[in-house]
Amino acid sequence: MKPSTRWLPAILAIVPLGPPSARAEVAPASASPEKKVEFFEKKIRPILVSQCHTCHSAETNSKGGLRVDDRNGLVQGGNSGSAVVPGKPDESLLLQAVRHADDAPKMPPKSKLTDAEIADLARWIEDGAAWPAEVAASAPARGQWEEKYAALRKSHWAWQPVRGGGPPPVRDASWPRSDVDRFVLAGLEAKGLSPVGDADRVALIRRATFDLTGLPPEVADVEAFLRDDSAGAFERVVDRLLASPAFGERWGRHWLDVARYGESTGSSRNVPFPHAWRYRDYVIDAFNRDVPFDRFLRQQIAGDLLPAADDRERREHLVATGFLALGVKDVNQRFKVRFVMDNVDEQIDTVSRAVLGLTASCARCHDHKFDPIPQADYYALAGIFQSTDLCAGVRNKMGGGGLDYYDTAMLIPLDSAPASKADSAKVEEAKKKVAAAKAEFEKLRDSPAGAELGPNGRPKRAAARQKMVKLQADLLQLTDPAALGPVALGVRDGKAVGDTQVRIRGEAERLGPTVPRGFLSVLNLPGQPAIPAKQSGRAELASWLTSPDNPLTSRVFVNRAWQHLFGQGLVRTVDNFGVTGDLPSHPELLDHLAREFTRDGWSVKRLVRRLILTRAYQLDSSATPDRLAADPSNRLVWRHAPRRLDAEEIRDATLVAAGRLDPVRPVGDSSPSSSMKVIEIRNNGPEARKLLEIAGASRLRSVYLPSLRGITPGSLEVFDPAEQGMVTGRRETTTVPSQSLYFLNDPFVRRRSIELADQLLARSDLDEAARIDLAYRRTVGRPASANELRRASAYIAEFARDARAAIDWSPSTAVAAKAPEPQTRPKPKAAAAPVNPDEADQSDEPVREEVIRASNPESAAWSSFCQALLGSAEFRYLR
Predict the structure, then answer these.
(1) Residue 690 has pLDDT above 90, yes or no
(2) Are strands 412-413 and 487-488 parallel, antiparallel or unpaired?
(3) What is the domain partition of the chain in residue ranges?
């Protein structure tokens, strides 16, 4: 077989270190496995060690990305493909190189192996490339582990079937409005407690609107609700909110936290995922359409393997598999086998935590120390994901640059026929030109000026650099996301499908026994599907995860929903239902909700509606000393737990208060990060600064801001956004000084304060008291009290008076002299006017504010008052 010239750029750079073997020893094809391993140790390993290890081992730079000190490295190969194809010596690139075949690199480069050594290598490959298997040291108390595992499978609450049964009896039968309330009240009565009173209607509609949409209620909606005394008024509010597109944006954001959504690889080299927005939009649409949660999961695990009714559904299924592709990628990893296994580990961790609430990745290196998950179970799952191509559009390369990490072949085309613009031949030709130009430049750069370069050495270097930069720009244009046609990040079944080996101590190169693909033995479900030999097994895994007999999937999700509405889960460790996790506060209620969830067809909206219409959800948030003493953490739900708004809610509510939120989703690939070139983003580089400028000027909802790992917009960063590197079912809530400084100094807050003040002052139909009242309604969602009206009026008057005095006594009147008169103050924009999110507001905020202060003390006073409201605890918290 004639080798391909594509193999030339980077392959073995073998340096001869020892004498060649004198003769060949042939292990007959019928030899036992032990004899084949003996042949390898006697004849093959010495060749690899003496001739190859210097350049191609874990202790070296591993040229061409190839390792020869482990079988996996040889079989998976380096940048040019598989070096050894077991059973097929003529297709093995290693053998072509040592034979010095035409158009192949000559390896070793300064000599050639003997015919006997080449024959040994050929026989070894033909016989299956035998390699000694490593065996993990058996634990002395392995039998005790098995006994412990068996006992845990039978006893731990999370792994038992969902129990039936109705709600318990309660003494105060007049209090509950639903079965959920009966469970809650029974728990309180058992401890001698009673719930507090109901929330007032203003607090209730603000709470429900934020919880369902992530936005504050409109002033008109609050007023309408307060006027509606009819039965079912709150139900109608809830139904309106569930039907709002904002519901999917809010609850989709919850799932994006769990799915560790990010628009770049993160890790040591941060490379953008310009097509990630498709998955984000898919998630939002799925929650708005109330796609049954079991189907939602199956699409994300195995959408490419599911039947589709039409082309739209087929594309949707492909995009959904982005769930498995969007994790952190260490593209700077030297060895491909480690890159692959680290990504498999990340997928196992995501699926097990997100869907099952289990920490299965703890079994990568050894049997799980706490939960009954043996190491073999981990590698049963690993075989499924190793049989799956991870199509994230990137690859690993140690010390790469420019487009080295980008791999357009590893993207999912969404059209039946790929776009003609995405011409892979043109891309490969452009890459070759860049590589040649780069080599030419580096040769000139590293050569001393003298005989070789002559007196024009510096101009030659400059010309070579310009040529390289021009060719890189041409390549960048060819690989621009817009030139590829509609593509997505996702997965597909790999060309090589099969079981995988246990990795000794979790090390990718140390192979132990092979484990059949399968599922976690902690749940032995009746009728669980068998995995076909020629398929990855993802379709069967998806069926196993969403089986009605699987007690974890439904429990985990209803617990997540409870947390989002009540502040903490019935199981507080929402991502860990294992032995080290929390026990449920109301186990019977958890099972009741899980059972009803599946009976309702896995409808998320029905689940949320059921919970939000309970009397427990509608309780007041006030506390009493006796109840606090008896249950300080409110585990029994005797009141509604107040909560701080999360990062996205604070930013979006600030925009709403200022009348500047653009509620329209960016159309298609107009998402800010979709146009990014796939080159490394430096944290403090121009690419990062540009993204932060876009985010700072954007009026879109926060879920649509650029979401690159390690580059967080300032308006979100200080309020504990989701950790994008792992499953985040519960965000941290910290209180730190930078949050106060944000409300005091950040240009985003100051700008919104000025805009709100402008709009209030523009209301010539309102007097001062009515303007103050409107400011309260737009910021904290309620009318101002009489005392607040007096205090605000006095503050505004005093501030304006001090501002005038400052102008009168200022040593320099230059600013005041040039400032416009109050009546010529620019007319504010209408509150409802949509703003183009791409219009960057580059105004110098401090200068503009000082002009306002100097020219119009009244505007300055109202801006300061509005900023105080935006910085208040009442604005940040729900009660």
Answers:
(1) no
(2) antiparallel
(3) 5-126, 168-247+549-643, 331-416+485-548, 743-878
